Amino acid sequence: MVRVKVDGSGDAGSLEEAARLVQPGGAIQLEAGTYRLERPLELTTDLRLIGAGMDKTRLVADGEGFVLRVAGTGRYEIRGITLEHVGENWANVLEVAWENVLIEQCRFVGGKWDSTYRGGAGLWIHGQSWALVRECIAEENARFGIEVSEQAQPTLEKNLCRNNEGSGVLYFGNSAGLARENTCEGNEYHGIQVGKQAQPTLENNLCRNIEQVGILYFGSSAGVARENTCEGNKDDGIWVSGTAKPSLEGNFCRVNAAGQLKKESVWELIIVGAIGGAMFGAASRSSEAG
User: Is 189 part of a structural domain of the chain?
Assistant: First the structure.
C-alpha cells in the first residue's frame, strides 16, 4: 500500500506520484485532508484508491475534462473520498470508461458544462462499463448527478442524487443496468431521466421534491420501472413520451402537482400495480392517468 498524507510525508509526496509508484492490483491510501490536483488525473493501472471517508478526504481539481478518470484494464476500487471540481473549466467530476469498477461511499460535486454541452456530470459512466456504484452522493452538479451512456450497464445502489441543476440520474444512448434503492431529490429537471434507446431496470427508487418529473421516459427508451415512489414533484410523477415503451410495475405516485402518470407515447403502456394508489391488479392498458 502506498500512503499519501496532505503534508507530503507519506510514502509518496502526492497522489500523482502514488499513482506512478503503485503496483498493479495495489492500493493507495489517502489520509484525511484536502488534496489538490495540478491537472486532471487518469488512472490506467488497476488499483484501489481509499480515503478516510467522504467527509474527511477531499480531492479537488479545476482542470478541463474531469477530476479523475478510470480508463485502464483490470479491477478498480474507489472508496471514501469526496471528488470536487472547482473553477470555470468544463468537466465531469469522475469519469468511468472501464468495465470492472467499484465506487463506494464517495461524493461527486461541482461538475461544470460549457456551451457545447460538454461536462456537467458528477459521475459519468460510459463505454461498456458495468461498474457498481453504492452509497454515494452526487450533488450540486451543473447537469446530472449520475450520467450513464453508450453501452454502459452499471448497478446503482443506495445512492443520493440531490440539488443538481439537471436530473438526478440520466440514462442515454444504449445504456441499461440496474438502479435500486436510490434517492433523487431537489433536482431542477427530473429525478430519473431515460432517453434514446436506454432500457434500465429501476427498482424501489424514491424521486421526491423534484422541480419537474419524478421519472421521465422519452425517445425510444424502454426497460422496467418497478415499485418506485414518486412524490411531491412539481410536474408529473411518471411521464412517458415519444416512442418510449417501459413496463410500469407497482409504482406509487402521490402528491405530484401536475398528475401521477402522463402518457404521450405512441405505444400503449402495460401497467401493473399501483399508480396514485389505484390498484390495477392484472395487467392493464392506460393512455393517460391524471
Answer: yes
Number of domains in the chain: 2
Do 59 and 171 reside in the same domain of the chain? no
On the 0-12 / 13-18 / 19+ scale of CB atoms within 10 A, 146 is buried
| Backbone φ, ψ for residue 32 (5° rounding) | -60, 145
CB atoms near residue 290 (< 10 Å): 10
- For the chain, the DSSP string reads -EEE-TTS-SSBSSHHHHHHHSPTTEEEEE-SEEEE-SS-EEE-S-EEEE-S-TTTEEEEE--SEEEEEE-SSS-EEEES-EEEE-SSS-EEEEEE-SS-EEEES-EEE--BB-TT--B--SEEE-TT---EEES-EEES-SS-SEEE-TT---EEES-EEES-SS-SEEE-TT---EEES-EEES-SS-SEEE-TT---EEES-EEES-SS-SEEE-TT---EEES-EEES-SSEEEEE-TT---EEES-EEES-SSEEEEE--SSPEEEESEETTEE--S-EEES-B-
Full residue range of the structural domain in which residue 76 is found: 1-121
* Same domain? 202 vs 276: yes
Find the angle CA(25)-CA(26)-CA(27) to the nearest 5 degrees.
130
183, 107: one domain: no
In a domain, 129, yes or no: no
Predicted confidence at residue 290, as pLDDT, reads 30
102 and 171 part of one domain: no
Q: What is the pTM of this model?
A: 0.93
pLDDT per position as a tens digit, 239-276:
999 899 999 999 999 999 988 888 776 556 656 655 55
Confirm if 51 and 94 have CB atoms less than 8 A apart: no
Are residues 286 and 173 part of one domain?
yes
User: Which of the listed residues 93, 121, 149 is the one where a domain comes to its end?
Assistant: 121
